[in-house]
């Protein structure tokens, strides 16, 4: 990665760069020597200031630097990666607390990881899946015609297959770059996914399958989502050559859960930030973006940056918490008032071995009960220890946002024991990541749209406001909501800005 002109170093920027190079660790008293003293406000002048050091912001910075522009990336947290987070375990391993899997057609995150030397490996997918429904557990193979679709009754399967085909067909009619222009956009955007499912997934077991698909894709209940938004999301689950499908969203083999990163997904933003050095400033939550003549003055805690262009690469509800002067157009502000984060957490239990594998199980569960209704085998590629990961989603996450961590742990381990037996009750360690409680994310995996939002406000999603440009996975036309969408949005916004500078 070519570095552009070096920026003047401030103490703060040097620390940010050091932290990024060291793996985005928390700054310590030892590192600063003067940790108790409040840092003097530093200032910089660059071509482009980027708000947010997630995959989107860092990718934009990479491309702008490669084009010879000066940049500063202001990141609120003491680490890069945003919704991509490596949790260090007591046994020295790392497991993913946020974005984790990639799959076919997610070309841009794969290319980025390749460029940084971060290898992938196949998500453990050998053996049978488990369905836990109506108090009964059944194991089923996933190499048949149904793939990983749980074998509910025949009528339900037939109904679900028709529903799935209808959703894919409707999604093909949604232009990914402007879903609000679909011929039936008004009709599809005035109903929730729930009301459409009630009319179409009429067999209860089919409704169950679609509900589970919905919560596992969006971490939102079907009643929270516009049908048009769901169709757009399906359409976006592909690339320029390959239209998206529902199946690609839900599957492990040949789907969005196919691969993981050796060493954990956060290695990608950590290594990317290292190439940017002291351009990345940590612990710098941006508070205001103010126009000053033909420039912008962006004020974060402890640092002020003046730039010709601003890239805001944070989720829409977080962008709404920044003060803008002058005010943003009403449509843009109202859009961000209407794109809440979904609700998600991940719980990972660590064991000496992935013991479920010996029982012929791949660690993947679909369940109609418990705090955890879907699980994955999150063990490292060498299986030197076992890791069971459970998603806590939507209503189930909201019910546990304020619960003591031990309460959540007990609920999760009870679920794991129901699915995998009593051995699951005694992990060697346990980690919990609740995204709703994170100051600079406030939910996840993605912002969601209820009826009326895309058709009324959609055009404001990417439209620059003066010299302020918008990035982040929520602005991507392919793989919106995913790491791939974040990278694509960074690449798109860099081109957009370069065309203007
Ligand atoms: C539990 C969970 C599971 C997921 N699973 C997957 C998966 O398996 N595969 C996949 O591809 N994707 C997954 N995702 C989604 C994926 O992680 C995101 O789509 C992607 O990381 C978003 O990147 P981003 O750069 O657009 O936004 P973010 O990662 O949210 O980055 C935004 C950055 O801006 C910072 N910020 C916020 N406000 C401010 C401010 N005022 N000033 C400065 N900085 C600010 C934040 O700290 C953050 O670092 C998952 C997400 C979650 C939460």
TrEMBL record:
<keyword id="KW-0560">Oxidoreductase</keyword>
<dbReference type="InterPro" id="IPR036188">
    <property type="entry name" value="FAD/NAD-bd_sf"/>
</dbReference>
<dbReference type="Pfam" id="PF01593">
    <property type="entry name" value="Amino_oxidase"/>
</dbReference>
<comment type="similarity">
    <text>Belongs to the flavin monoamine oxidase family.</text>
</comment>
<dbReference type="InterPro" id="IPR002937">
    <property type="entry name" value="Amino_oxidase"/>
</dbReference>
<keyword id="KW-0732">Signal</keyword>
<dbReference type="InterPro" id="IPR006311">
    <property type="entry name" value="TAT_signal"/>
</dbReference>
<feature type="signal peptide">
    <location>
        <begin position="1"/>
        <end position="37"/>
    </location>
</feature>
<feature type="domain" description="Amine oxidase">
    <location>
        <begin position="55"/>
        <end position="498"/>
    </location>
</feature>
<protein>
    <submittedName>
        <fullName>Flavin monoamine oxidase family protein</fullName>
    </submittedName>
</protein>
<dbReference type="InterPro" id="IPR050703">
    <property type="entry name" value="Flavin_MAO"/>
</dbReference>
<dbReference type="InterPro" id="IPR001613">
    <property type="entry name" value="Flavin_amine_oxidase"/>
</dbReference>
């Amino acid at each position: 990665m070519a570095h552009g002109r070096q920026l003047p170093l401030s103490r703060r920027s040097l620390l940010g760069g050091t932290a990024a190079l060291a793996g985005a660790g928390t700054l310590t008293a030892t590192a600063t020597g003067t940790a108790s003293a409040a840092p003097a406000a530093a200032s910089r002048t660059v071509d482009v200031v980027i708000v947010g050091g997630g995959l989107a912001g860092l990718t934009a910075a990479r491309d702008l630097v490669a084009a010879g522009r000066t940049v500063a990336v202001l990141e609120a947290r003491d680490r890069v990666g945003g919704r991509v987070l490596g949790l260090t375990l007591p046994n020295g391993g790392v497991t993913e607390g946020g974005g984790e899997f990639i799959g076919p057609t997610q070309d841009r995150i794969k290319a980025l990881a390749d460029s940084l030397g971060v290898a992938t490996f196949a998500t453990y997918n050998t053996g049978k899946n488990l369905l836990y429904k109506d108090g009964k557990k059944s194991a089923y193979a996933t190499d048949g015609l149904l793939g990983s679709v749980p074998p509910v009754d025949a009528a339900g399967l037939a109904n679900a297959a028709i529903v799935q085909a209808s959703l894919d067909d409707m999604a093909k009619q949604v232009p990914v770059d402007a879903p609000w222009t679909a011929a039936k956009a008004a009709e599809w955007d005035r109903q929730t996914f729930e009301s459409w499912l009630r009319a179409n997934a009429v067999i209860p077991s089919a409704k169950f399958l679609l509900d589970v698909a919905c919560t596992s894709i969006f971490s939102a209940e079907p009643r929270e989502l516009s049908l048009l938004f769901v169709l757009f999301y399906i359409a976006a689950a592909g690339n320029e050559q390959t239209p998206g499908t529902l199946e690609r969203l839900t599957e492990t083999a040949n789907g969005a859960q196919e691969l993981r990163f050796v060493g954990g997904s956060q290695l990608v933003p950590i290594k990317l930030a290292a190439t940017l050095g002291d351009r990345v400033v940590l612990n710098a939550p941006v508070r205001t973006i103010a126009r000053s003549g033909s420039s912008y003055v962006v004020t974060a805690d402890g640092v002020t940056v003046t730039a010709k262009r601003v890239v805001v690469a944070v989720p829409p509800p977080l962008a709404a918490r920044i003060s803008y002067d002058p005010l943003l157009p009403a449509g843009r502000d109202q859009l961000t008032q209407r794109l809440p984060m979904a609700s998600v957490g991940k719980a990972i239990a660590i064991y000496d071995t992935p013991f479920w594998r010996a029982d012929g199980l791949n660690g993947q569960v679909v369940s109609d009960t418990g705090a955890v209704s879907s699980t994955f085998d999150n063990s490292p590629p060498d299986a030197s220890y076992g890791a069971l990961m459970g998603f806590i989603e939507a209503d189930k996450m909201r019910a546990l946002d304020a619960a003591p961590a031990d309460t959540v742990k007990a609920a999760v381990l009870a679920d794991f024991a129901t699915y995998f037996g009593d051995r699951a009750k005694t992990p060697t360690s346990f980690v919990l990541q609740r995204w709703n409680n994170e100051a600079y994310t406030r939910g996840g995996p993605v912002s969601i749209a209820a009826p009326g939002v895309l058709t009324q406000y959609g055009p404001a999603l990417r439209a620059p406001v003066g010299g302020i440009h918008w990035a982040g996975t929520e602005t991507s036309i392919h793989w919106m909501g995913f790491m791939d969408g974040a990278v694509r949005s960074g690449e798109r916004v860099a081109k957009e800005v370069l065309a203007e500078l």
